[in-house]
Predict the structure.
Amino acid sequence: MKVLVINAGSSSLKYQLLDTAKQELLAKGLCERIGLDAPRLKHEPAGKDKYEVQVAMPDHAAAISAVIEALTDADHGVVKSMDEVDAVGHRVVHGGDFYAESVLIDEDVKKAIKACYGLSPLHNPANMTGIEACEKLMPGKPMVAVFDTAFHQTMPARAFMYGLPYKYYEEDRIRRYGAHGTSHRYVSQRAADIMGRDPKNPEGLRLVTLHLGNGSSLAAVVDGKVQDTSMGLTPLEGPLMGTRCGNIDPAIVGYLMDKHNLSTKDIDRIMNKESGVLGISGVSSDFRDLEAAAKEGNERAQLALDMFAYQVRKIMGSYIFAMGGVDALVFTAGIGENDAYMRKQICAGLADLGIEIDDEKNSSLRGKEADLATEASKVRVLLIPTNEELMIAKDTEEIVKNA
Ligand code: ADP
């Protein structure tokens, strides 16, 4: 089946056209600056030259129109017409507690996505514009919503509840939802497969999946089901990240707001955009820059790296304890897949817990699936490049076939 995967942001839209039977990428691309001046489409057809054009994109419908043109273009295209594309899979950031799985999009699903606008004010409306634009331009084409929160819906209440008055859960749905769910699901299923287990039902298998990128989250996954995850009501909770503060004493918020006369918008900006390893180092949110600066003796860059490794280890450790042990750690996303230094820091000194990383494998293997543990290590340390788009395409295929 050929599935078009759409990830619509507020002013950008990423797409991939995948052949699910061959697990092959036919084309991918990105529309940038939708609704702004100088919008651009970057299109990469497999086996052909990349190209980049300026196209008028006043809204998401115009962007989807440009994507359709690029996919069917005589020179740069990969299909003759959109009739060859069987279905569309949409990444949707927040499904609240409405959806524990991906779902065929209908009016009720759209209502539920809208009901979650308050929980994801930047992303869900943008995802919806992508859905509506596709409906307009490809009427009747089956479409599936794949939620970033869905995989985390198996968490028990003891893990997803916050210690606030119960009425805020009942009335305002304040609870932990988690994020990066599609990535945690993909890598945990791949990990099960690599370990010779049934990816859909790996009974007894205990994993900590570490999605470490610009945004970072960890999940404790038992029997293929999430037991806990580090992102919360929003993607601000967890270890400190590129620009996000992660876990802090919640009283700091009110204290700083009062002391510096800050609005909720100000404190939100500070915690989301000006904090994390960028805020600590004053250098960059990118770990490559931090490691280069630390090597040259920049102490705050080193502190930011130390804090990240320490906070990730603390969360990882708490999950291992909560699960009563662990069979594999799974590293993924920009840092998890590429940053050998950080993986080493996170796994250092854990031999007593049966976690031993092989230094040579860790520093030489990158970008493809590998087991970085020593032969003697009781716990596997897996590097698994994430592939959220493939997961979205596979869900879309399964749901459309069974509809
Ligand atoms: P996003 O959350 O935006 O999807 P990614 O998963 O692409 O982020 O991760 C991006 C981050 O990965 C960068 O900010 C950078 O810190 C880190 N990264 C990428 N490549 C490397 C590398 N070779 N070494 C260290 N860090 C890297």
In short: The chain has a mean pLDDT of 95. The pocket of adenosine-5'-diphosphate is lined by residues 213-215, 242, 285-288, 333-335, 338-339 (CB under 6 Å). The chain has 15 helices and 14 strands. Residues 137 and 343 are 45 Å apart (CA to CA).
